[in-house]
Amino acid sequence: MRREFEEPVRPRSEQVIGREELLGRARDQLSRGGSVLLYGPPGIGKSTVLRAITTEYAESARTVLRCSATESESHLPFLALVDLLGLVADEVADTLPAPQQAALEAALTGRAEPSLHQDGLALRLAVLSVLRALAAKGPVLLVADDLQWLDAPSAELLGFAARRLGGVPVRMLGAVRTGTEPKEQEHDPYLRAYPPETLALRLPPLSRPQVSELLAGRGYPGLRRSTLRDIHHTSGGNPLFALELGRTKCSALLNDMLVVPRVSRFPRVVRVLRACGRR
Ligand SMILES: Nc1ncnc2c1ncn2[C@@H]1O[C@H](COP(=O)(O)OP(=O)(O)OP(=O)(O)O)[C@@H](O)[C@H]1O
Ligand SMILES: [Mg+2]
């Protein structure tokens, strides 16, 4: 029986434009039992690809563990650990030695020392033991979005486990907001959470036809070629920016229509409203 924790996977229908090569490389790496880290600037589509890969791999995993860090909560120690293991730890906790059980319980209930000094080894071993015990029942997929905001103790614990899980069916899939190759920033705490042989994949910008497909799919069909060219150029192929520009262009077009004399403007306004997806 497959188990899932945290928010449900989004419906399969979420359309991912382009990214075939990237998805192929991620697929190969995960099939080999390796880990994947997606990276790129804000809005480039990391979470979208992360969800697509998760949906695909969740099928073959018995347990899917997830966390998605947020900036406003990144100071809370063990929060990611709670998100990842909070609902599943009980399933295997009785297989852990008593000191590990106690340390894990303290961390998951907010009583542990954030510094990881006191009971630090017991807690590190407990996280490793839980992942091993879950993996003994079937493959585990551990998905973490917005790793740039992962709380530091959770990053430390995950890293300790990740470095010792070789040969154990626990695959890690993550996304981090950064414009540069994650390995160049070794001081970043999220890097400690991933095994050194993790495949880091940068999300490139979308091409002009892909931006055009994105806009058409989101209710901005029929934009002029020159407008699409402008949107692609200005957004630099960033899907979030392109969608925002598409919306703005449509609103501007609509405002222009409204200065036309009232009787003649109606059919044009309807056309623009349609083009803007505001039917
Ligand atoms: N390949 C894609 N196909 C279709 N839509 C996409 C694609 N990539 C991104 N989008 C859309 O662009 C927007 C931004 O994508 P997403 O949230 O995945 O970016 P992100 O890189 O995770 O951003 P952030 O750094 O803020 O977390 C969303 O509306 C998403 O649906
Ligand atoms: Mg995201």
UniProtKB/TrEMBL annotation:
A single Gene Ontology CC term: cytoplasm
Annotated keywords: ATP-binding, Nucleotide-binding
Occurrences of domain AAA+ ATPase (ranges): 32-276
GO terms of molecular function: adenylate cyclase activity; ATP binding
Protein name as annotated: ATP-binding protein
SUPFAM superfamilies associated with the record: P-loop containing nucleoside triphosphate hydrolases (SSF52540)
InterPro entries: AAA+_ATPase, AAA_16, P-loop_NTPase
Key word ATP-binding present: yes
